[in-house]
Design brief:
The chain is an alpha/beta fold and 321 residues long. Helix content is 40%, strand content 21%. The strands form four sheets. It has a seven-stranded mixed beta sheet with strand order 3-2-4-5-7-6-14, with helices on both faces. Strands 11-13-12-15-16 form a five-stranded mixed beta sheet, with helices on both faces. The protein has a two-stranded antiparallel sheet with strand order 1-8.
């Protein structure tokens, strides 16, 4: 299942080049990490529209804000831990507050950064960025979705935070943004149902969508019908789909490569608590820091595998019954 692997950051860099050919108002900025974020591809083709600010993330955001205020569509990139933790004040004050057209697209999110170690992990970025007014928060599930998401945010005015991964990850969509031969439409604020269920619904985001689909298959083998929905947009959250899933199956599992506090799980819990409380389990990183190591081994240690999702879903179905 999902034998093909592809890089979300590679898809991002290639798509920036496509966009740059179409719109001269697109500018790209980086903080001395362009070979890793893949913005180097844009720099090679459009050097006059590329700005490397050096190891200065606060300045990265401030310059992007200035360019946006002059009518440019500014894409600023660095690693998630640097863009969010070092550039937060500037993003809040200079981008989110004045509602400027800056797209902060970070790579190396979560703990799949692996051997780079704990200092480079970022597991709280979604909670932080979705708390800011005016900011859209997006986590593509794979490289195919990254391409369509990048094109979409380029054409949508306003501040955006989009998080990508370091390693090549399973490709769940067919080229052209299709699933099981069906052409899909990427809409900000709307999720995508990938599998129908009756007993429990798994709401997943980012790289965890592929793990959730694997879990759903194993649950089916065990007699549990689990639905899977890809929440590529965390903010604005797809409230309508959350409530429909709660009504249809009466049990919700959220899955994310992020702390269980304040991310997708937090957003879904807020909706359910106010509208339709049902049994719910959050699969994510518990209240801990992770250590350095191969990312697949880290996923196993910190509870981010399909087996962990299966265990959570089975427990939830028993509780519901």
């Amino acid at each position: 299942m999902f034998e093909k692997l592809a890089g979300t950051r590679e898809a991002y860099g290639e798509t920036l080049v496509e966009l740059g050919r179409e719109d001269r108002n697109i500018v790209v900025l980086d903080a001395d990490l362009s070979p890793s974020t893949r913005t180097i591809l844009f720099a090679q083709e459009f050097p006059e529209r590329f700005f490397d600010v050096g190891v200065a993330e606060a300045n990265l955001i401030s310059i992007a804000a200035g360019l946006a205020s002059a009518g440019k569509i500014a894409f600023a990139s660095t690693f998630s831990v640097f863009g969010v933790e070092k550039g937060l004040n500037q993003f809040k004050q200079s981008v989110a507050y004045p509602n400027l057209n800056v797209k902060l697209v970070t790579t190396h999110g979560g703990i799949s950064v692996g051997e780079d170690g704990s200092s480079h992990f970022c597991i709280e970025d979604i909670a932080v960025m979705r708390s800011l007014p005016n900011v859209t928060v997006i986590l593509p599930a794979d490289a195919v979705e990254t391409r369509v998401a990048t094109k979409k945010i380029a054409k949508t005015y306003g501040p955006v935070y989009m998080r990508l991964n370091r390693p090549k990850t399973p490709q769940i969509y067919e080229e052209g943004y299709r699933s099981q031969g069906k052409k899909l439409k990427f809409e900000i604020g709307r999720s995508i149902s990938l599998k129908e269920g009756e007993d429990v619904t798994i709401l997943a985001t980012g790289v965890m969508v592929s793990e959730s689909l694997k879990a759903a298959q194993e649950l089916s083998n065990r007699g549990i019908k689990a639905g899977v929905i890809n929440f590529h947009t965390i903010k604005p959250i797809d409230k309508e789909t959350i409530l429909r899933a709660a009504a249809d199956t009466g049990a919700i599992v959220t899955v994310e490569e992020h702390t269980i506090f304040g991310g997708l799980g937090g957003a879904v819990a807020e909706v359910l608590a106010e509208e339709n409380p049902v049994p719910m389990v959050r699969v994510g990183i518990k209240d801990t820091y992770a250590e350095s190591g191969p990312w697949r081994e880290l996923f196993a240690k910190y509870g981010l595998t399909s087996a962990d999702i299966v265990k959570a879903a089975e427990k939830l179905v028993r509780r519901k019954r």
